[in-house]
Amino acid sequence: MTSLLGNPIASPVAAINGTRRGRRADGPATVLAIGTANPPNCVKQEDYADYYFRVTKSEHLVNLKAKLRRICEKSAIKKRYFHHTEELLDSHPEFTDRRFPSLDARQDIVATAVPELTAAAAAEAIAEWGRPATEITHLVVSTYSGAHMPGTDFHLASLLGLRPTVRRTMLYMNGCSSASAALRVAKDIAENNRGARVLVACAELTLILFRAPHEAQADTLIMQALFGDGAGAVVVGADPVSVEQPDFEMVSASQAMIPESKDMAKGRLREDGLLFLPSREMPSLVRENIERCVVNALSPLDISGGWNDLFWAVHPGGRAILDSVEAGLGLDPRKLEASRHVLREYGNMSGPSVIFVLDELRRQQEENGMGVMVGIGPGISVETMVLRATGSQKKI
Ligand SMILES: CC(C)(COP(=O)(O)OP(=O)(O)OC[C@H]1O[C@@H](n2cnc3c(N)ncnc32)[C@H](O)[C@@H]1OP(=O)(O)O)[C@@H](O)C(=O)NCCC(=O)NCCSC(=O)/C=C/c1ccc(O)cc1
To answer: Which residues form the Chalcone/stilbene synthase C-terminal domain (predicted)?
Structure first.
């Protein structure tokens, strides 16, 4: 084939393939910055049973209150943060009276509260990144706290002053593995679009699942006892330029469904909000399956054991979940200290929790060499990302 000037040129397919290769990044995606945020209302776990039965006007359910107190005592949580306050709950009796539908009112509140909390975390990440917000090329947002069109991605882009052409992806209802899923998507975007800078943002507000106790549904006490509000944001990009100081390389990402687990961690969006139903078997199923998930994720990298030589960023879904991962992998107890710290200080914030754990690992400078981020979500889904700490001396 010749050009109009008579010079030989490559075939169109070869030219397109060449261009496609040229559009890819040279190196792996990296974590360039991390931001986190929580609402101001803080409730100590030791006060939670009194607080919860008072605000739901359920003091007469003395057995359930005693049960909640037992769960709180065993939770290894010290305190949690919530967007909702006692005043807000008082002004919305439908949030605590199961006879009335309340989804509309919950959706109306989270429609602005989720983008605002997400923006606080994202602004922190962008400030640390050190480049203008207008240089973010892609946005991946994940939440189960409300669903709107346009969604949190649209509002967040406006709140942060992102460019109007920022390419947005919205992920809904990924439960507690939502940030892990968003980071996996961001890694693919960053590695396949040279120069891309992807903002990942994830927030959850427990207002979407707050409800009064009920004798016939004692299991709902688990979500009231463990879950807290938070937002996490990460700037992801490959081939860092001089101002950028990566914390972690995102080496590989995998996802697995634990067999026979579809009823283990279910979420149902109801007229009275989101109902989360955790099975009692969840911790044991995690313990039995976690090593197989980790082996599948790491064997392509020729890593097939020596789990204590890696650092770990495990989703703090509950004390029993962390105990199960520790036992299933035979980890030295200090290996999950960053996850236990996040559980202790914030509770289970669902998806954003792993972003807090990554932040904590780099703060404690506990990360070294290779490590694994583990997200645990509905079904049971296990999201695994192999990371390599860059040893950045960034001031955070
Ligand atoms: C701190 C716990 C709750 C209790 O500690 P323990 O050492 O097991 O203590 P006990 O065995 O004595 O349990 C205390 C009480 O809690 C009860 N309990 C113990 N698990 C249960 C139980 N799943 N049911 C309902 N009663 C129970 C247990 O029966 C007992 O009741 P009682 O005998 O009356 O004192 C512990 O079991 C624990 O951390 N469990 C894991 C909690 C859990 O499943 N976390 C969720 C992980 S998945 C995730 O993060 C979110 C995914 C998600 C998915 C979809 C969405 O929409 C949103 C999110």
So the answer is: 249-389
Look at residues 204, 238, 272 and tell me which one is the last residue of a structural domain. 238
Within this chain, do residues 293 and 323 fall inside the same structural domain, yes or no? Answer: yes
Domain range holding 63?
Answer: 31-238
- Residue 375 sits in a domain of what CATH number? 3.40.47.10
376 Cβ closer than 6 Å to some ligand 1 atom: yes
Residue finishing a domain among 187, 212, 238 = 238
Whole-angstrom Cα distance, residue 133 to residue 154? Answer: 15
| ipTM of predicted assembly, 2 dp | 0.96
Do 297 and 194 reside in the same domain of the chain?
Answer: no
- Select which of 72, 176, 202, 293 is catalytic: 176
Task: Report DSSP letters for 99-140, one per residue.
Answer: TS--HHHHHHHHHHHHHHHHHHHHHHHHHHHTS-GGG--EEE
Q: Whose CA is nearest to atom 28 of ligand 1?
A: 71
Three-class SS of residue 263? coil
Q: Could you give the CA distance from residue 146 to residue 105 in angstroms, rounded to a whole number?
A: 11
Question: Domain count of the chain?
Answer: 2
**pLDDT tens by residue, 309-339:** 999 999 999 999 999 999 999 999 999 999 9
